[in-house]
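[retry 2/3] ADP-ribose pyrophosphatase YjhB (NUDIX family): previous attempt timed out, resubmitting with same input.
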Amino acid sequence: MTDARVETVIDTVAWVRIEDGRILCARPRGKDIFYIPGGKREGAETDLQTLVREIEEELTVALVPETVRHVGTYEAAVHGPVDGVTVRMSCYTADYRGTLTASSEIDEMAWFGYADRDSVPPVDQLLFDDLAAAGLLR
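[retry 2/3] ADP-ribose pyrophosphatase YjhB (NUDIX family): success.
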């Protein structure tokens, strides 16, 4: 008998914004956990197109496309009691224009240090670990 389970991968992009040793996180409306800002691609969007659209939708700022730099891709089990679902998060830094403001999609924004690692999902925790090891997150 073969194993009929199918692994599902949720493909996301995330904006890594660090200031003063803290990383910007956002709690979407109706969620109980904070995430690195970003989200899932729509259709045939590239990582850059997804990142720019998601950050504008969530935080009302415009990323500067020529400053976008890939910092890593992470995979971990999805947050919550769901088996067989993995999140793949491609992370990018970028400069922005505008004022960071939570949109109607976001209930709360916060700047997290490494001590706040348990307040984010498993895939984000991997990013926190790398940033802390590199001396970027305090």
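[retry 2/3] ADP-ribose pyrophosphatase YjhB (NUDIX family): The mean pLDDT is 93.
[retry 2/3] clearing retry counter.
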